[in-house]
Amino acid sequence: xxxxxxxxxxxxxxxxxxxxxxxxxxxxxxxxxxxxxxxxxxxxxxxxxxxxxxxxxxxxxxxxxxxxxxxxxxxxxxxxxxxxxxxxxxxxxxxxxxxxxxxxxxxxxxxxxxxxxxxxxxxxxxxxxxxxxxxxxxxxxxxxxxxxxxxxxxxxxxxxxxxxxxxxxxxxxxxxxxxxxxxxxxxxxxxxxxxxxxxxxxxxxxxxxxxxxxxxxxxxxxxxxxxxxxxxxxxxxxxxxxxxxxxxxxxxxxxxxxxxxxxxxxxxxxxxxxxxxxxxxxxxxxxxxxxxxx
Length: 294
Prior knowledge:
This protein is mostly beta strands. It has strands spanning 7-11, 17-23, 28-33, 38-43, 50-53, 60-65, 71-75, 78-82, 89-93, 102-109, 115-121, 129-134, 140-147, 150-155, 161-166, 171-176, 185-192, 199-205, 211-216, 220-224, 230-235, 241-247, 253-258, 276-281. 0% of the residues lie in helices and 50% in strands.
């Protein structure tokens, strides 16, 4: 495992920073504090962070960009359209149908413009988590299921493969994705992790097809080749590493969110840099994220 000169882009001291995503049109990085429940935005070249605390919810599982400068937030009550200009939230869809003890988690748009959204068992033990596919008209279906905690997902440059973190199973899975179906096929193990390596959490894919994984509790991000071979593992200065994303003007800056929480991190880490957004120029170009066509 190598080390790197990470820069702290923002120290928002998020209890569980998650879901970093670069908005190319705005030249800005967005991310969330899962427990805030808070949405953050930092414009490139500015040290200032704009934050919104989302009302009437206890968490934000993730978000994606939508037309008109809006965002689709996954909150307690389902998917809502959030307007940063007004602060208004409008209900959009609720595939989970408020199942007791199951909440929303990571989400991402595929290369065909569909939203893939995972859920998790609050106890993180029962295989109640499902992966939903949601289209811009609000229709949804189940792509797969049977997981305690759904994380990731991320898509290959051509969109034919989805990578998915089965966090409780300590593995990344790969699925075949087709434009004309919302059912995932060809499930297979892409990478497996030991206890010392932490839990696979958020994922992103670069322009070369490399798959980057944040390792929760492992204090690192790792890059895998499209065939699952480990190419690189880079340490971060905190144990709770949650999600990576590429951005910046050339899409070559890797942003990584992190967190901290008493009882999870060691006592000496509670006053460390956990909860910051870290940045590293990798020399590897990322991919621009799609916008949901609502």
